[in-house]
Amino acid sequence: MHIQRQRLYCQRLISLIAFSVLSILFVGISSAAAGSTIAGCSIFPENNIWNTPVDTLPVDPNSATYINTIGASANFHADFGSGLWNGGPIGIPFTIIESSQAKVAVAFEYDSESDPGPYPIPPNALIEGGPNSDGDRHILLLDKDKCRLYELYYAWPETNGSWSAGSGAIFDLGSHNLRPAGWTSADAAGLPILPGLVRYDEAVSGAIEHAIRFTVPETRKSYIWPARHYASDLTGSQYPPWASGSG
């Protein structure tokens, strides 16, 4: 088993986005892109929406309003890099596993919208914020042999070897399939997390060839494709819907 820690790195958003903890949106890529590859796995097909250039598409007519609501002049919350924050590691890590990794049962709080598993969680799986974190505690697992992605939200180990989590989702990285409409995932937008993270190797290469995941302070009680879920009770048109891009 090979374990790899990668951190969020963002390039285009520094003057635009105020990071917080609530919503998932997209910033699309420009230029012809082939998508990203991790441990030999293509992160969804080349023509998947995650890997589709959007620089020639029309700008959303509400884009400026969304940016102003997010905070065009607000300080950038850099949730990427290295080091510690409040005693825990910064960023969202992922763990690369082999298909031989033993699978364990997971009990979900939101079980009606979670893939039941079992999930191949190694004892030393990397957890967002570290093993003692009381934050979102995401676990991202990439099976490099089957190119399958397992993601958990608020994951905790149990004394009997099983795990408990708020929610969980399993994605076939060779497929375009989305989750059922109205379903959450390990992310409240119902989308996978790993494809939208920007990794160190991408940053140093000078090319980020996929959509970027980011969060904003307030969102609308709605979502647009490819999102499948929202987590807000605000209805004003100034708030960005889940999975929209701003700018």
Strand share of the residues? 15-25%
Distance between the termini: 40 Å
Helix/strand/pairing category: mainly beta
Number of strands: 14
Helical proportion, percent range: under 10%
Unreliable stretches covering 5 or more consecutive residues = 1-24
Give structural attributes:
14 strands, five-stranded mixed β-sheet, globular, 2 helices, about 250 residues, disordered N terminus
Provide a descriptive summary of the structure in words.
The protein is mainly β. The protein has two helices and 14 strands; from the N terminus they run ββββαβββββββββαβ. The strands form five sheets. It has a five-stranded mixed beta sheet with strand order 1-7-9-10-13, with no helix packed on it. It is globular, with a radius of gyration of 17 Å. 40% of the residues are buried. The model is unreliable at 1-24 (pLDDT under 50).
Task: Please write out the topology.
Elements: E1 3-4, E2 25-27, E3 37-38, E4 41-42, H1 63-70, E5 84-85, E6 88-89, E7 94-97, E8 106-108, E9 139-143, E10 148-153, E11 156-157, E12 163-165, E13 167-172, H2 200-205, E14 212-214
Briefly summarize what is shown.
The chain has helices at 63-70, 200-205; strands at 3-4, 25-27, 37-38, 41-42, 84-85, 88-89, 94-97, 106-108, 139-143, 148-153, 156-157, 163-165, 167-172, 212-214. By secondary structure, it is mostly beta strands. Mean pLDDT is 85; it is low at 1-24.
